[in-house]
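Board notes (copied after class):
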Amino acid sequence: MIAPAIDKSVLSDGNEMDWSNPRGRRKLRPSGLRDAISGWLLTRSRATNRGMELAGFLTLKELVEEVASLMTERQTVRVPVSMLVTVIVLLASLVLGSACSSSNGSTSTTKKLKIVYFNAIAANTYTAANWKGIQEQAKAVGAESVVQFDAGFDANKQARQMQDAITTGKYNTFIVEPVDGAVIMPVTQQAKDAGITVIAVGSNIASDLAATAPGVPGTYFIGYAPATNGKQLGQLMSMACAQKNPCNVVYMPADLRAANENVRKKAAEDYIKTQPNMKLIAEPQSGFDAPSGLKAGQDLVTAHATGVDVIGGSAGQAIAGAVPAFKDAGWIGKVKIISNGATIEECKWIRDGTLFGAVVQLPYTDGKLAVQDAQDIMNGKTVVPFVDEESISPIGSKLATLETLSTAKGQQFLGEYTDS
């Protein structure tokens, strides 16, 4: 549907004008000009309200040019001053009215994101980076609102928070860092049924936590499977054991109250079992933060003063907390240490030899991508249900070592969050 050009006949007294004959000129009618411009506005407005494309319509600039061409089609035409005043007034009001209409239209008809971030635990630098990415991208896309709910690492509390948010009807986008993806599957289905876009970040919402496909059809997941992450920790530990046979390894899970930690631990153990030179001698829990990591490190040094070749941990903050204990024991440079996150500190430590390597985590990028995906979904674009962090890793791999951080891309990667 194309907006009609200006109808010349309405600009005169109703008879076709003979522009070549000065005596045949008719008096230009201001009311006719108003009718022509009003018709343009009405046609364009109807198309906009019906969601039709406007690419084929006359733009305001083109309308002005066409009116001007009609007014000056023949230099011999004498345009009355009153007519010029009418043109100026009409076009000025058209500019102002069109701008106001556009502004009002975008406010009333354009949908905007109303985001809730369901944080597994706010007192954590990983999820803080996630929240930062969400906030920044929400601002970039013009989201109407973005709020955060802290589950305090309580899966049932997180489920209640999601239920309450559905009940309010205030939100159209849920971004979830699950405490336990299996526990929140029912409420995720309710959110989906209520027309809310649900995007999991970091960990999946599914009964099978080793799966990457979203457990609730029509929802989305950006991150990695904990089983894949556990295998990658095992691979790094194996690389560190390459010149050692036998190689005594310690795996430090964070907190086994978290369902995904159990999945990650089993995957690391399964990989270690495939390596004939690796011997798993201890699995102390480190917790998720630096203080608990320091205590775990001190206890490990006490329990195994000698005989440890490689240490791998699933929580970067905890491994960072344990580093001072390892330094005091003289283990740095002798015992190869693997972390999970490739944080700002860990990237520095890999480069200076304090750590052997780390699995790259991208919480800030995940948060930004989740918001952008939600915006794309709202705009009717197709979004893939799963984005694997490995496919978006800035170093081209999930395994950060001195080698991978020395490449052209690796040299630019400094980590996305801190350990403290």
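Comment from the instructor: The two ends are 59 Å apart (CA to CA). Residues 81-109 form the longest helix (29 residues).
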